[in-house]
Amino acid sequence: MKLQGIRVVDLSLFLPGPHLTMMMADHGAEVIKVEPPAGEPTRNVGLRKNGESVWFRNTHRGKKSLCLNLKDEAQREQLLALIDTADVFVEGFRPGAMSRLGLDYATLSARNPGLVYCSISAYGQTGPKRLMPAHDLSVQADSGTVFLNEGSNGEPCSPAMPVADMAGSLMALSGILMALLRRTETGKGDYLDISMQDSLVAWLPNALGPVFAEGRSPVVKDERSWGGNAMYRVYRTADGRYLTLGGSETKFADNLFAKMNRPDLAEICRLEPGKQGEAISYLQQEFSRRTLVEWSEWFDGVDVCWSPVRLLHEAMEEEHLQEREMVFEDEQGNRHLGVPIKFMDEPARVDTRLPALGEHNQTLLDLIQEV
């Protein structure tokens, strides 16, 4: 596997750090999760099956658990000795916390020059907001993406996805892999300052036209991606379900309205977003005449970007995800998310075992003594 032989020591909690280190574990890295005496918080968050929370199961599989009280000097020294053997160190605390514990980059890199050290925080290690407490919702609100998540009443809605968390996770993974690649040439590690806000803002190229070109915020309902384009919208069906049109290329408008015997409305879809009201009104009326199942049959064979709005449990049962092994079940009947990074050679091998709190303490402490 691609990361076999890489040892990761992970002090992070909740989602961004644990998610990225799980992806490393899936591809062969040895990931040692350092847990506080109370354990990783997500062990006890949300619904459980077979004794473990679904959240914990899908962020901590295949890892080892080392339970330490880092306020205890002797246990902190044990951690330092372990980090001396590591390739990667990940932490997700507020700036300054690691320095107070003597676990800052300067200290660790002096002992282990090849260490790739990754800090993930809400706002980064510099700047006036660096010490502000924040989780995903606060970061999204502060970055303008909650504003973009406008409901039909024109008011912002709580976002459904933890995009700041996950953007931070993926940016951190990318940075760690870059640093490991560079280390093969230099022998030297590096320090990564990953901000969830930076990571989220970097995902906004398609949203910033009005901001960068005209110095204004977008009128959300009139923008191409959020309702201003007839061919890129959510529509209600006769049975109270929903479908989406998700491709604004004019060829799809031509194909759709040709089958609806209204080719004239394809011309409306060539107008700029926010001026396609005639086509939108027609489609709202038409889609309300049939059920979602009927529309699924109607669209069969039509070259149009469309999709049913599936309920979440429906989506996880969908045949395509099963074939792609993105949802699978282990021998105990626990369901898991699969691996999205699919190599032809050396594919991931998912180890669905979960560590008990502190399960690997003795093994890892024996390892330290042998070094």
Automatic annotation (TrEMBL):
Xref: Gene3D superfamilies: Crotonobetainyl-coa:carnitine coa-transferase, domain 1, formyl-coa transferase, domain 3
UniProt protein name: Acetyl-CoA:oxalate CoA-transferase
